[in-house]
Write a structure and sequence with these properties.
990 residues; Rossmann fold; 56% helix
Amino acid sequence: MSQATPDRLASLLADRYRIESELGRGGMATVYLAKDLKHRRDVAIKVLKPDVAAAIAHDRFLLEIEIAAQLNHPHIVALFDSGVEDDTLFYVMPCIKGESLRAHLNRLKTLPLDEALRLTREIASALAHAHRNGIVHRDIKPENILLADGIAVVADFGIARAMTAAAEPKAAGFTKSGLVVGTPHYMSPEQATGGTVDGRSDIYSLACVLFEMLAGRPPFPGTQDIAVLAAHVATPAPAITDFTPSVPGAVSDTIARALSKNPDDRQATAVRFAEALSAAATARYSIMPESLAMVGRSPNNIPHQRTRFIGREKEIRECGDMLRETRMLTLTGIGGSGKTRLGLAIAQSLLPDFPDGVWVVDLAPLSEAVLLPATIASMLRLPETPGKESLDVVREHLAGRKTLLVLDNCEHLIDACADVADMLLASSASVAILATSREGLGISGERIVAVKPLALPPRGKTIDAAQLSNVESVRLFTDRAVMASPGFSLTEANAEAIAEICRRLDGIPLAIELAAARTRVLSAEQIRARLDDRFRLLSGSSRGVLPRHQTLTATIRWSYEQLPEDERRLFRFFSIFAGGWTLSAAMGMCEPGADEFAVLETVGRLVDKSLVIVQPEEGSDETRYGMLETVSQYGRERLIDAGELENARARHLAVFTALAEAAYAERNTRESFWAPKLEADHDNLRNALDSARDGGPEAHLRLAGALGWFWWARSHLGEGREHMTAALAEPGPPSRSRARALWGMALMVGWQGDGAGSLRFMREAVEMWSSAGDLGEVSLALEGIGWAQFLANDYDAAEVTLIECLRTQEEQKDPAMIVRAKVALAQVKVALSKVGEARRLSKEILAFASAHSDQRSEHFGWHFLADCALIEGDCAKSLGLYGKSLVLAQALGDRLEMSFDVQGVGMSLAGLGYNPDSLPLVAAAKSEWQRIGVEVQGTFWNVLLDRYIGNPSLDEGNVQPASAEGASLGFEEAVAAAVRLSSGGARPTA
């Protein structure tokens, strides 16, 4: 039988898999990278070589593979599929991104003790699970141990068993056909001699692997298989300390016992082997003063830290107070948020409160819950008591002692930690427990404190290096950057780049530290420029650090992989949101008919696990949720890997198109409700517009057209114009969506100085709506034509148009549309200085606003009354009225209208002789127009500006400096000043 070529194999499996490339080959099989066509994922397909396949019974082999495929464990490589095609025997596994332990050892030769012991415990955890399910691996070796982000996962579970069962083996690990089952350098004596094999055989093999990790060679090296097998059977294993003297004696003894020739002399189970290694390892730390922070009379094992702890002073104080009151405090947060460092700092601060000791138990290396009590006992230096469970030993020891236990990294052992903590707290009133976890333990009396990211530099505000140096996240970046590159410093030149790095990394300490480490080879500006690929950028690590804490990817992956599949799927879909989402939006991302309470429950679990955050409501009627940018980016990558991106984008587009259209339908009557909602989801709407552009002209026009009023109302003129331009540029027939987009475009270009273009777009919209018979929209467009004429400074034409518009609206008897027409007409009357008519309309507008709680109409009413007073020279009256209008514009979030009110306050102050206050406000308003993109040169405004700001009584030498001051004042500061000055805070010039 000949080996199936890649082309032949591709043909055989074409209905299920697409062969991509060869990954490697060994003595028994060739491994290919392939694409699982059904599930759209990368897989590894292992194809047995023809001579191997010919030597075994296919049916029995596949049956044994099916049994092994039932194993489900985080440290076991799953078996997805198996089969035989044209005598080609194969099985399918996930494609693990990482290297094998063999490749790892080939590079490093030996591993640090902590890493070797951790990997061994992880492998032992996998073996324990398999043994409980009646499966012995039979071929534990470095080649079958893969490192996924440094975490051990064992491959080929059940394969050796399957081959053994299917090939009728004989002594010395060979089948009758001469096929070797197992690997001589790691084979137990009983397997080598064809004896009965159980889980203790795997323990022996694992001890051989651990020996090699520490010594750089297996216990019995050699090139002759028969000689190596004979040594396993008859030659005593050497001591590991003969090759690596630094290995502690307790660890050496544990390995020696596992290498016993007689299985009865070894540890009985893989769990016992792991427990023994944990106890032997922790014994190193329990009485080493140079590794401990022994403060006062309180015994403790709080490790000395190699780096400074930055910030969090308030949290340390508050959490210390909580622990004195509650006895059970859990610090929760996403991986890398600094839970461990904060927990240690809190523990350090509480040493005087716990005279019987503060003991830190790091649970990160543990992979089996059964190891928890023994690990705590070992950390407390408690000897084993025959016939007594470790937890009982711990409980009896702590009874009556004033002790603080710090259980660090509980998330993967959450149930076991909860049970242990509950029992210890119940059995002793003097014990307190501080836990760190990505979610709470969920026990009675527990206080949970979410560890927030470090404080960030403010956005949208220029901040100098001196100010930045007081911001926690920047302090951390600078401190770690100096460690990486001693010549580094925070300067005015790199201040903004560093601030942006800290913002983009969400203030996550681990991410900031990894970014700072890059200053060895990159400038702050270069780091900032590469943050879109942050998971590759921030992949540096330190030896001795647990792999899941070494890279940004690994720490988030660790949280993700703890989730059940239903939570993983929603996590992936939620990553499509930008800037947060509501429960109703979340429902739109689910399958039709999804139960809202079930979705809410899942969202709650993701919040509990620190992958989703509850955002401050700020007066909203609906809770919003969000993700840190770093977490969202990871979720998006998983969304792509799962082949779900396009589905998620389509659902996201549907959700936000529906939201925009619901807002459009009620924009005239419920603007104060809908505008803030759309503003909160503006980033989502931007992303939805990108999706709509890919979805075709109608989808794009439909969404853009529904948002035109919002962009105008919230002063997003430049952005709105860009979206409208793109949507209208796409070919398509006349439609309601296109008419809406034309109306929105007319608003944008009109306020940006193109009155003629505004008029053209409005008239085109009228034609489309008229053809569609939509009279309501036609009357709205007629009002728009009046505004376009006004913006083109054709006030007389605008007056005629808007009088006709008002008459039409009054005939249709729609109060909301009538008041809109009155607002537009009142603006034109002001421009024509027809003060009496403008004042009458303004009062009618205010009456409507009062009756209907309409903030926008009320704002316009006060603003036009202020304009009338200013035209008449009553600056004291106009000052107060502009102030009223400004407060309402603030509530609306309409920065354009706010700028007009600020300008009005400035002109009123100038008319009253308050020169130093007036000019900066007018300059700040103009600066805001430039930022928004407003370029209207209203004739009547210019007249008023010339009259007041161009007042000859002003000191002309102060005009330019004052304008510069206003431009640098910042619009928010100008608004605050205008509110204060309009309410009596102005002072006349002497």
